[in-house]
Amino acid sequence: MKPLKNDTYLRALMRQPTDYTPVWMMRQAGRYLPEYKATRAQAGDFMSLCRNAELACEVTLQPLRRFPLDAAILFSDILTIPDAMGLGLYFETGEGPRFERPVTCAADVQRIGIPDPEGELGYVMNAVRTIRRELQGEVPLIGFSGSPWTLATYMVEGGSSKAFTKIKKMMYAEPQTLHLLLDKLADSVTSYLNAQVAAGAQSLMIFDTWGGVLTPRDYNEFSLQYMAKIVDGLTRESDGRRVPVTLFTKNGGQWLEAIAATGCDAVGLDWTINIADAKRRVGDKVALQGNMDPSMLYASPERIEQEVASILEGFGHGPGHVFNLGHGIHLDVEPEHAGAFIESVHRLSRSYHAG
Where, in this chain's numbering, is substrate bound (predicted)? Predict the structure, then answer.
C-alpha cells in the first residue's frame, strides 16, 4: 500500500500536531450530489449500490473529487449486519429501512448467528479493498458500524421508530433477552470492524444514533458497555500505524466523560453541545469530532464561515479536533455550500495550529 500523502485526520485523532484542522462530513458520499444520484440510478437500488464494490468505490470517491476533504468514509449502511443475520432488510420508498423478520422474542435471538465478515458481509470487505486501492494513499479511509444498541432498535422495531416502544418493552420486561441480542451484536460488530481494518480501513467509527433516547442508567447498561466491549476487542494497529476509533452517540453530550473512558481515541459531538464545554470536560483524554449543525449548510457562505470560526474558537488552539457536522449532511444542501464549509475550515483553522 502507498504511504499516506495526507494523514492530517489520523494525526488529529491521535492529538498530534497538525498544520490545520482536518474536516470530513458524515454522509459526504450521498444524495446531495447529482453524480451520486446518477450512480445510484445505475445500480438500481440502495443495497445493490452497497453490494457492488466498483460502484460503492465510485460514490465514496465522488465527494473527494469535488472537495479537498481530509478523509474518505466507506460507502455502506449501518444495517448490513442485521441484514446478514437473515432479518430480510428492504427499503420502502419514503419510509426508510424495514425488516421482514424483526426480532420479537428470546427464540428469535437464539436463532441469530454471528455473520462471517468475509462470507455474508464479503461485499463490504470487497468495497473496502477496492476503495483503499483507488484512493492511492491520498487520504485515509474510515470504516464504520452501527452500535449494538442502535442496530438492536431497528431489529426489534422492524425499522425506524419515533417512540422506541418495542425495544424499550423488551429492555424493561425481558432485559436478559435484550442483553443476549446486544452481546451477539457486539461480537458481530467487533469481527466486522476488524475485517474492515484487515481489508484496508485506517480508522474506525461507531455510530450510536439512538443511544440518546435512553436514561443515563440504561445508556450505560444497554449501549455504552457494549461499545466499550467492542473497543476492547478491536485491532488498533495496522500497516505500522495506530487505527484510531471514534465513538459517536447522537444526543449523548451528557455522557461525554463516560464515553471518553471507554478507551476510544475520539468522541463525536452533535450540535447540541458547546465544543468549548466538551473540551473542558474531557481535557486531553480524547480528540473531539464535530460539531456544526448540518442545517447550517442551508445558510449563506458568509454565515457558514462565521459558524466555522465560532466552533474553531470554541475548541481553541492545539491538536485533537476533527471538524465535522453534528450529524449527516441533508440531501437538499447545495454542494457549493459544502465546498464553502470545507474551505472555511481549512483557511480559518491554520492560525490555531501555528507554532
Answer: 27-31, 77, 154, 209, 327
